[in-house]
# Entry
Amino acid sequence: MTQIAQSRQPTGGVRHLRIGADAAGQRLDNFLIRQLPGVPKSHVYRLLRSGQVRVDGARVKPARRLSEGESVRLPPVRLAERGAPVRPPDAVLQRLRSAVIHEDAHYLAIDKPAGLAAHGGSGLAFGVIEAVRAWERHPYIELCHRLDRDTSGVLLLAKTRPALLRAQAAFRDGAADKRYLALLCGAWHGGAREVDAALVKERLVSGERMVGIDDEGKSARSRFSPQQRFVGATLCEVEIFSGRTHQIRVHAVALGHPVAGDRKYGGREQQVPWRALGLRRMFLHAHRLQLPANAGFLPLLLHAPLPQALRTFVDRLSALHR
# Structure
């Protein structure tokens, strides 16, 4: 079902957006941000405070939940040129079409390539979500979660709002089973090890954003289980019980075993041997995602095998033992 039915108005004039089933239950401010790409959030909230945005003719607060059938009045808004949507190259669109690993009435799952962001922003003109929307196949499509730009693997998108809320609740409540494969620097001693350390985002003097461990940050827990041992490296399966930015990478450093190929947290010098052996990316891959059954939804289990480049690198490490 189409998310909104939009009245025909001259470009730049007042618009009245009819709320459809897929937008029902969404916060008004989030709805507006989606409808006004390129408009700063501060301006969106200014429109709300001044009463220029109305629902069924009434002034409402930003957190107001929308209902199916309501009409949202939008005043004329000038979109910033730099915020105008950019159509991803056809090669990117085709690459993602071939990376689809699952699709049903509720979800679309993609084996995201390393180097492609989940979404645009912060200097990136587009990401996976913008590319999928450019297919023009889905009336409604939203990211259920994020993956780091340099991480490959299972990325889940929702085709309906109820499916989005189901997935977000599973991630928020710790009901989702999220597992990664990571090659960690150094010889691993013993079996599985767990890290329970809160994380906080920091901005350095250089302007680069980093994540660090801080008791005042957001709770984060990861379990690292060794799967294969090599000379100077260990392949681990990592299960995360939260979904914080750069969680695995920072927790791996806390264990003294940074992710191979991670020059942001692992240190450039420590990564030199891996580049010499042919590793050209960070060795972190989301290989499994499972959502439990929920009212109206069956269990969902998704797998993405290691990319060929990482499999080749593992074979190269294995050969060093022979």
User: Anything to note?
Assistant: The longest helix spans residues 161-172.
